[in-house]
Amino acid sequence: MKFGKEFTSQMVHEWEEAYMDYNYLKGVVKDISKFNKKNAPLPEVAATPKGSLKRRISMYRAFSGLQSRLSFKGSPKIENEDEEVILVSALEQEGSLGHHQTKFLMSSEKGGEYEVVFFRRLDDEFNKVLTFYQKKVGEVKAEANELSKQMDALIALRIMVDKPSIEMHSETIDDSALSPASLKSPGGSHMEAIEEVEMTGEEIEEDGSSRGKQDTPKRVRFRPAPLEILDNVRINIEPATPVSTLKNVMKNSKANSSFSKDQLRKAEEQMKKAFVEFYRKLRLLKSYRFLNVLAFSKIMKKYDKTTTRKASKSYCERIDKSDLGSSDELTRLTERVEATFIKHFVNGNRREGMKYLRPKAKRETHRVTFFLGLFSGCSIALVAAIAISIRAGHLLEHEGRGQYMENIFPLYSLFGYIVLHMLMYGANVYYWRRFRVNYPFIFGFKHGTELGYRQVFLLASGLSVLALAAALFHLDMDMDPKTRSYQPFKELIPLLLVIILLLMLFCPLNIIYRSSRFFFLRTAWHCLCAPLYKVTLPDFLLADQLTSQVPAIRSLQFYVCYYVWGNFKTRSNTCQDSSVYQVLHIIIAIIPFWSRFIQCLRRLYEEKDSMQGLNALKYFSTIVALVMRTLYDQKRGVFWKVMAASTSGITTVANTYWDLVIDWGLLQRNSKNPWLRDKLIVPHKIVYFIAIVLDVILRLVWMQLVLDFQELPHLHKKAFVAIVACLEILRRGLWNFFRLENEHLNNVGKYRASKSVPLPFNYDEDKSL
Predict the structure, then answer these.
(1) Residue 303 lies in a domain
(2) 434 in a structural domain
(3) Each residue of 332-353: b (16+ CB within 10 Å) or e?
(4) Would you state the pLDDT for residue 173?
(5) Is residue 285 part of a domain?
(6) Beta strands 96-104 and 172-174: pairing type?
(7) CA-CA distance, 142 to 148, in Å (whole number)?
């Protein structure tokens, strides 16, 4: 792979604009090369007899050795070997220390203006990279100081919780009282005391003079961690459960006067996450520094090779002397973070600590590709078999067709909705990776646990094989007269399939991508318990996905109706006619929209962002439209039709505008790309216009349920509802890609490449002064 492509592939996605523009400088060097070739004199070439050996001259070339070059007496010296080509100087400007400027000393030569342009742009790129690097180093230094203060508070809290007998001031205590064995927590979960207390290592006598270790008395004065800092610290731990959230609200978030082991455990977890994320920032910054230094070295070597000059040595020396090349602050800080994390969070186990700090990337295996192909082929074969069975058995004209569509079809359509949504997500992952959208960072996946598109397609194809095989088996038993006597077992097949799916989803064993399954369950629980959890991006994105899965949620309601209140043995049910079912039919459908409505209200309260209030109003209008549409479907009548059509029209316009303008950031009239936005990831603009048209059309499709256009020949109403639901899932998959693209570009615009981890302690500066 050429360096330019490798350089681009290893960039931090969100910092791309801060990297050296290697391709542009490479283009300038090519311009210099073209000019030199165009104006170079033609060499006189001696005629070579036809048929002579081309490699003959290599027999007379001198061999200079594999490693060292030998100099012989009488060998000619290369003239102008150390000829000065450029003069690099550092200028001090207001607000910009270390600004570098290069003067090309041979601009009077023919074609020198090309090289002047090259060095001018090279200086601009170097100063840009250096300024960004110095800014980021300053940020990590400030964050390191904050983490140090947090560690002081954590160590003091450990002593206060594990050893409450230790007083706040220095006192004369026995040497064994601070031994590692005596200061371990009862459960052995915390570190040894010498690591928690952070003693100075120097033992002090009563008179204040220091004494060596050999003649240390048994009773000496130690200086334990400054526990007084807990007087100026308030524990700031986000409630982890709905119950703790309610308790926190009732207490009005007052400062804690006592400390518990539960608070200590949560504070340790937050500090652990903060250190892991801070270490990741340091690694990203080190990678940024290394790649840019290497890029400058490569472009200077390419310049020397093109112009036959020797300017790279002078310029690279200047880079090495700058903060970008000579600063070892990051290295020292990285080593200190490693030592602190290993010492204070994993009991000195370096191997365990490095597993947290440097998790290994997940390896792609051929096994996934093999089973993906196998399940995909089986799914296609099963679809063909079902089509043949329906055609051969004349099931479309069968007298029991209506009964089957009313009772069995909704049971199996649930799996179709889930598989289609997974396929759309897998396609999104493929295109996010292709266009370098950092979706693992946006979703907040733990490093190395995110699923690639192959894994998502594997899960979708595996589930489709189960569902299609069950449906085919069900049809076969329906058509075979010998098996019609096994109706109870036959009707239980969809229920067994749901049970298998739930067991796989909640399985505690480390199989079938456990971390991703638990991430989904945890996020779904946050959505269900909104607003008792702090709203994060995965929470409201999943709630948005669920708003497109209302038919699937209603299918789960129908499972309860069919197998609990319905007579599934005779394939009939009357529970759908009950008023309780109809009310639940509305309530269950509005749960995802209500969750998003409550999430927006909590974000409005916390962030004071008026856009969250408008978003909440949008979801409330959707809830009203959904209720009116369901009531019209149940009661019919002109009044309910007018109410359903008007509310649905209003919410359709509002949702479409929000999709295109707010979520996607498009339709900006004065942008660089008219009616799109300034920055685009997909290179073809027509894709965005097609997406806009499709989103509008698919938003209007569900209006057909209100306007009674669903009466199509040879198409059952349940089938039409399923088709509309599938189109909504397709629209949601389209929405997902451009929503995350816009989020990624926002992160790029703010150079946000790492997560912001809340710290467990707040210092009261007024008291500490």
Answers:
(1) no
(2) yes
(3) ebbeebbebbbbbbbbeeeeeb
(4) 33
(5) no
(6) unpaired
(7) 10
